[in-house]
Every structure is written in structure tokens, then in C-alpha cells.
Design brief:
The chain is α+β, with helices and mostly antiparallel strands. It folds into three domains: 116 residues, Sandwich (Immunoglobulin-like); 79 residues, Serine Threonine Protein Phosphatase 5, Tetratricopeptide repeat (Alpha Horseshoe); 132 residues, Tetratricopeptide repeat domain (Serine Threonine Protein Phosphatase 5, Tetratricopeptide repeat, Alpha Horseshoe). Helices cover 52% and strands 14% of the residues. It contains 13 helices and eight strands. The strands form two sheets. The protein has a four-stranded antiparallel beta sheet. A four-stranded antiparallel beta sheet has the order 4-3-6-7. β6 and β7 form a beta hairpin. α5 runs antiparallel to α6 and α11 packs antiparallel against α12. The N terminus is likely disordered.
Length: 337
């Protein structure tokens, strides 16, 4: 096993004496973002105070109401991930309540902590000294995002990255918010900057690929074929880099499959989408795209199979009516009617 260091970063905002409305956020940072890592905050005796799981971008949030009185003078942040050495870091209550940025390293099982092979983790991001003012702008931006106040979120995130140019999370979220308000070129630049800050993170490349794919779809809808093909090629390049960094990214596999479909590379598109289905436990969007792939290839029996699987696995899907009609049409073709 190659020697990879995983880092978990956590930050808490100072909000009086309670944590709850109050938040305790963190992020798993590694050679790629990692989903599904369980992070536990517990007492010295092992009693669990709160648990959170990282999402697709490696972020986690302790959302339970953690009143200050439930926390002793100190607690432990614990990560026990299969394949890695167990980690248990003591945090004073003042650390949890007072804010700050904590970095926790997990060494691969049997390996010594520290010293990643080839710099698997980008040191600039892990050691970035994020000023308190930038963290405050970032946390307020997250509140704006929750309130769907995207314009204010953009302003706060722009201030955060002005104050802390190496603030990877802020660049990622800035790109997402710029995309929401349709400032697409600015969103691309934000994701490109995130990729420069953390060259080993896949998320910036996935998101950049998604923006190019969506732009290609708009060109295709306007029948701008040359522009569409060029933009889909840009999407392919970004997604290819993302999958080099994170081969198990479901979103990366799906958008790569969708991009290859648009580039008429149907066999390759099928392989990517099937992988997304397997990784995502029956990824619904990938099944829908596979219907298109098989239909374009004239493999109507396989398209019908995917329609049936989608309907079985997603009984309450909003597309159910339209997919049922597609299934009827495909069944008629397969039956020779």
C-alpha cells in the first residue's frame, strides 16, 4: 500500500457558550476528497457526544445541539477508518467553543504517521493560516447559502478568498455560488484557482467538468454544434483529471459518461455509466443516461432493462410518468410491434 496521509480539518465558530445553532464543521482532505468517513466527538470514557459522516466533498457537520455543559473540560475527536491507523485527538472545551482550524492526520494501517509519499496531500492547503476574519466571512456565507441568498454568499466568499487566497473550501463554494447566479466564466476561474490551491483534490476538477458539460448542453440546445463539441471536449479534459485523482467518484463517472455520450463515444460512455451505477448503488441519473446510450446504439432490449431497473429502484421519482411512457415504447420495439 502506498503511503498516503489523510487529513481531517475541523473548525468551530465562537458563538457564546453553546454549540448547536452553533456548528462544528470539518473537512476530510487527502490526495482525493473522501466520502463516508465517520468522525466522532466523544468524552474521555468513550461516551459519544456527536457523530458525523463526510459527504461527497469530504465535508462534515456536527448538527446536534451540543450545549456547553454537556462537554467536559476536554473531549476527543476520533476517526477510526478501515485501512488507517485509529486516530484520537484531545481537544479542550475552549478549543471547540473558541474556533480555530484543526488538522488531524491518519496514517495508512501499518505505516508511521507523517511524511506522505510524493506529497499526496497538498501542504499549502493543510498548513494554510486562515485568518479569523476570513473564517467568519466563510461561515456567514454558508448561512447565506442555507437561506438561498446566493448574491450575499458570493460577496462573503469573495471577501474570504481575498483575505485568504489559499482557502480551498471558500474557492470551491465560491465556484458553486457563481454557477448558481449564472456567472459561469467566473465560476470556472474559481474552480481553477481551487485546483491550484490543492492540486490533489478531485472536487475542483469534477465541478469544472460539470460547468463545461452544462455549457455544452446549452450550446447543443441552441444548435451551435461546433461550440458544443469544443465545450464537451473541455468537460472531458477536466473530468479525466478528476478521475485520475478519484477513480471512485460517482459524480465524476456519471458526467464523464454523459460527456462521452455527447461526443458519440457510446462504448466508453456505457463503461463510465455502468461504473457509476455500481459505485452509486444503482445511481438513478446514470440509469437514465444509459437508456439514451443504448437507444442510440439500437440496443433496445438493454435500454428497456435500464428503464425497468430505474422504475423499480425509484418508485417516487418525478420522472416516473415519462419513463413509463419510454418503457412502453421500448417494449413495443422489442416485441416487434
Amino acid at each position: 500500500m502506498r503511503n498516503v496521509i489523510v487529513a481531517v480539518t475541523a473548525c468551530a465558530a465562537a458563538m457564546g457558550t453553546a454549540l448547536g445553532q452553533d456548528f462544528f464543521r470539518g473537512r476530510v482532505v487527502a490526495d482525493v476528497e473522501r466520502a463516508g468517513i465517520v468522525v466522532t466527538l466523544e468524552r474521555q470514557n468513550g461516551q459519544i457526544l456527536a457523530q458525523a459522516m463526510t459527504d461527497g466533498r469530504g465535508a462534515f457537520t456536527f448538527s446536534d445541539a451540543l450545549a456547553a455543559e454537556t462537554i467536559d473540560n476536554y473531549a476527543f475527536l476520533v476517526v477510526d477508518e478501515e485501512g488507517f491507523e485509529p486516530y484520537r485527538q484531545r481537544l479542550a472545551r475552549t478549543d471547540i467553543q473558541g474556533g480555530g482550524l484543526f488538522t488531524i492526520y491518519l496514517a495508512p494501517e501499518g505505516a508511521a504517521a507523517g511524511g506522505a509519499d510524493g506529497g499526496a496531500v497538498d501542504v499549502r492547503q493543510l498548513l494554510a493560516n486562515i485568518p479569523d476574519e476570513a473564517l467568519e466571512e466563510y461561515e456567514r456565507a454558508l448561512e447565506d447559502i442555507d437561506d438561498e441568498d446566493h448574491a450575499d454568499a458570493v460577496e462573503r466568499l469573495e471577501r474570504a478568498v481575498d483575505l485568504a487566497p489559499e482557502f480551498y473550501d471558500a474557492w470551491i463554494d465560491l465556484g458553486g455560488q457563481l454557477n448558481v447566479i449564472e456567472r459561469y466564466d467566473d465560476a470556472k476561474r474559481a474552480y481553477e484557482r481551487a485546483g491550484e490551491v490543492n492540486p490533489n483534490g478531485a472536487l475542483a476538477h469534477v465541478n469544472l467538468g460539470v460547468i463545461y458539460y452544462q455549457e455544452g448542453e446549452r450550446h447543443a440546445a441552441d444548435e451551435n454544434v461546433v461550440e458544443a463539441m469544443g465545450t464537451f471536449a473541455e468537460a472531458y479534459a477536466s473530468l479525466e483529471r478528476a478521475l485520475e485523482l478519484d477513480p471512485v467518484s460517482v459524480e465524476g463517472r456519471f458526467y464523464m459518461g454523459a460527456t462521452l455520450y455527447r461526443l458519440a463515444e457510446f462504448d466508453q460512455a456505457e463503461a463510465q455509466l455502468q461504473t457509476a451505477v455500481e459505485l452509486g448503488g444503482g445511481h438513478a441519473e446514470s440509469r437514465l443516461m444509459l437508456i439514451n446510450v443504448y437507444n442510440r446504439q439500437g440496443r433496445y432490449d438493454r435500454a428497456l432493462e435500464q428503464a425497468n431497473l430505474f422504475l423499480d429502484e425509484n418508485p417516487d421519482a418525478p420522472q416516473r410518468g415519462s419513463i413509463e411512457r419510454v418503457r412502453e415504447q421500448l417494449q413495443a420495439v422489442v416485441d416487434g410491434r
